[in-house]
Each structure stands twice: as C-alpha cells, then as structure tokens.
Amino acid sequence: MLLKRWITALCLTPFIVWLILMGSGDHFALFVAAVSLVALWEYFGIVLPRTPKTHPDILAVFAASPPLIWSVHISRFDIAAGLMTLTVLLFGAASIAGFKKDAEVGKKAAFGLLGIVYVSLFLSWAVLIRDGRDGIVWIFILAVSVFAGDTGAYYAGTRLGRRPLCPFVSPKKTVEGAIGGLAATVCAGSAIKFFFLPALPWGAVILALVLTGVFAQAGDLFESVLKRASGIKDSGKILPGHGGLLDRIDGILFAAPVVCFFQRFLAGGG
Q1: Predicted confidence (pLDDT) per residue in 170-221, tens digit
Q2: Membrane-spanning residues where (predicted)?
C-alpha cells in the first residue's frame, strides 16, 4: 500500500508541477473545474450512495460547478453569487414539489447544497490564490504544506502515535500524528517562503502555516465524518494507494481559504 502511494505521487507530481509552472491561469482554472467534477462524483457516492448520479439534484450541482469556478477566475463574483443563489432556489423548489413522492428529497437537497459549497466553492479559493500576486508561489505553499502535513502526520502517527485524536471519527489518527503533521506543514511552507518570498514577515507566515495545518487536518476529519456516517472507507479508487481524489484534496479544501486570506491581506497579495 505504501509503495503504491509513492508510485502514484511520483507519477502525478510532475504533471501538477508542470501545470502550475507552465500553464496559464486559464489552464489552472479549467484543471480545478475538472477536479471539482471528479470530487463531486466521489462526494455524492459517499453521502448519497443509493441515489443515481443522474438524479436532477446531483446533475444540478455538476452543471453549476465549472461555471462557478470559472466565474471566480474571471472575477465575476456576481455570476458566482447568482449561481449559488439559483442553486439554492432550485433545490428549495424541488424539495417542495417532490416531497410527496420522495420523503428523502430534503436530505438530497441538503447534501446537494453542501456539495457545491464543500467542493466547488472551497476549490474556487485555490483559483483565487493562483490569480493573486505571487500566485504560483502561494499555490505551491498551499499544496506542498498540506501534502507534507499529510505525510508527516502519517509517519509520526505510525511511529509515535499513542493517544487517539478523534477516535469516533477516525480511530487511527493520533495526537502525535497531528503534531507531526503540523510540524511538517510549517517546515515545508517555511522552506518555500525562505527561497521565494523572503520579504514576507516571518510571524505572519508562521501563523498562516499553523492555521493552514490546523484547517487541513480539520478538512481531513470532516471527510472522515462523511465516510464514517455512510460506512465507507475511501471516497473512490482513482488513485492507487490513496483511494479517491477527494481523499487527497480534503485538506486542500479547508486550507485554501486560509492561505488566500494571508496571501491577500497579510502578505501583500493583490
């Protein structure tokens, strides 16, 4: 399993690095939109496993996700807000109209709304980071620090883990693993800051990285809550050794808004 994880990571990393370094902001936004569709597919497989992906509520979220992310990319936040509002209104109308035939229509609508916020809206923060000042560097800070935190948490938890962190949600996660993950996040992000953003104040960067690590681990636990409630171990099988794509980006989803905030308001991002 561990060998598969490393092989998958080594195969995907060059493409992602090339996309970030050589691709334009448009390319990155299109990539994120594609990622959102795969992640949404896995998300609905977790929360609504018995509901066909062709259900109107699910199709509505799939249809809204790429335009939402693209509208954020082109700074048309009025369109993004309109899409979110329209989605809420459609789900509300569908719940009222379909309640007589389907007692779970409210549940489906609620999970649909959660999906477009949890996956699509949260991923759009990564697009905002890429489009901001020093966006390429900040995207690397986000991705490298979160993935380093995952790796640090895994190895620290495996070798040093004694005290469970949140046993009812994820029995294998430990306090020691969480601390190791935070340390890895701070170290990885600090290295990027040192070489590529030397003018930034260290205090703000360390605070940003600590919060990034905390929120990334919260994102991991949140997905674990969804999977635990449905009795599912992995969100999918698209990434050998890792599970699903959502399993890989769950920390990114929660950490991206934090990184974007520090980029734009505390680190001189524009």
Answers
A1: 888 999 999 999 999 999 999 999 999 999 999 999 999 999 999 999 999 9
A2: 6-21, 28-48, 79-99, 111-129, 135-156, 202-222
Nearest-angstrom CA–CA distance, 122 and 147: 17
Can you say whether the dihedral through the CA atoms of 242, 245, 246, 250 is positive or negative?
Answer: positive
What six digits make up the tokens of 44? 């609905």
Nearest alpha carbon to residue 235 among 33, 41, 25: 41
DSSP per residue, 86-113: HHHHHHHHHHHHHTTT-TTHHHHHHHHH
- Write out the two tokens for 235: 């969100």
- The confidence score (pLDDT) of residue 88 equals 85
Measured at the CA of 119, the angle between CA 210 and CA 127, to 5 degrees, comes to: 70
Residues 6+ apart with CB under 8 A from 176: 156, 157, 160, 161, 162, 163
